[in-house]
Design goal:
single chain, alpha/beta, Rossmann fold, five-stranded parallel sheet, 7 strands, 10% strand, binds iron/sulfur cluster, binds zinc ion
Length: 319
């Protein structure tokens, strides 16, 4: 095969060379391959039932708009489907989240999707920017992402529950999964890995508190979602959160490490993804019987502490 021709239709207008598979793709074949990938992931991992109430977490970025766009298309072909609902969390990050949520709102308006926005200010009492300036110079400062991710995860879950969701669809892509897996290994967070096992039994102790989460983009590298979103004119908000640069954390370094490895081993993210599937399954069966404490404040499972991290933070920020 000559460089310059699409592997499938032989057109010479290429948009991508996938080093991990050796494919060269034109625009149409690339777009088709992404949409097929999402459909296959949903069916292979039994992510959806035809009559599920689906809530889609959207930030207005490329991943969440690609996900919502594809779920809209899938639902259109399913005569039993219920209307999708989009849910955004506004953490209160000046000059960033307000802008990305505007992209989310515009998108939902264009496609007629109901859109609910929940703010840190209304649920936690303070926006993330205020939390960070309050805690910044204290001894127990945890960095913005730790606060943000813990609080947002719970608000998304509870928000989806309030909206009657059976499933919460998240825009995590292959790169996110590879990065999180490596982080969890580096910090020996085996209980988290076991919790992320994809085929967890629906009736276990944890499941009744947490809505089933699915990640239909989990087998697509980040740069391909970026390309897809641009080719489809989804008008995603293009910028990154300022805390990712301002508040350097190991996650960013792990991501840089993976990107560097990709130059030499283009398939590295897929290896990490397959490692995640295998190891999370093994750990799930090992940790399954483990006793979980219930948080004394909210009743949610909380490992071996009396109060969960969400309630601990909430109390701390109100003080
Ligand atoms: S980069 Fe960190 S602070 Fe910014 S939205 Fe993500 S988790 Fe929150
Ligand atoms: Zn083609
Ligand atoms: Zn709690």
């Amino acid at each position: 095969m000559q460089i310059g021709n699409c592997t499938y239709c032989h057109k010479d207008a290429l948009v991508i060379h996938r080093k991990y598979s050796g494919e060269f793709l034109c625009k149409d074949c690339f777009v088709n391959s992404i949409e097929k990938n999402i459909n296959k992931t949903i069916s292979k991992y039994q992510m959806l039932n035809p009559r599920d109430n689906i809530v889609v977490a959207i930030s207005g970025g490329k991943d969440s708009l690609t996900l919502l766009y594809n779920l809209i298309k899938i639902q259109e072909q399913n005569y039993q489907s219920k209307p999708l609902i989009a849910l955004s969390i506004d953490e209160g990050i000046a000059n960033y989240r307000n802008r990305s949520i505007k992209s989310a709102r515009d998108f939902c308006k264009k496609y007629g999707v109901k859109h609910k926005i929940i703010t840190f200010r209304e649920k936690i009492g303070k926006p993330l920017d205020e939390i960070v300036s309050l805690k910044k110079n204290t001894d127990n400062y945890q960095n913005a992402c730790n606060y943000c991710a813990t609080l947002r995860r719970r608000l998304l879950n509870d928000g989806a529950k309030d909206l009657g969701a059976d499933v919460l669809a998240m825009g995590h892509n292959l790169t996110d999964i590879a990065e999180t897996f490596l982080m969890n290994i580096l910090f020996k967070r085996f209980h988290l890995l076991s919790n992320q096992y994809i085929f967890k039994r629906a009736d276990n102790n944890v499941h009744k508190f947490f809505i089933k989460r699915i990640s239909p983009l989990m087998r697509i590298p980040e740069e391909e979602i970026f390309l897809y979103s641009n080719l489809k004119n989804l008008n995603h908000y293009p910028s990154h959160c300022p805390y990712r640069e301002k508040d350097p954390i190991l996650r960013k370094r792990v991501l840089d490490f993976i990107q560097d490895c990709k130059k030499y081993s283009p398939e590295i993210e897929f290896n990490l993804f397959n490692g995640f599937l295998e190891i999370s399954e093994l750990l799930y069966h090992q940790h399954e019987q483990k006793y979980y404490n219930s948080c004394e404040v909210c009743g949610y499972p909380c490992g071996n502490t009396k109060i969960c991290l969400y309630c601990t933070y909430k109390k701390e920020f109100k003080a």
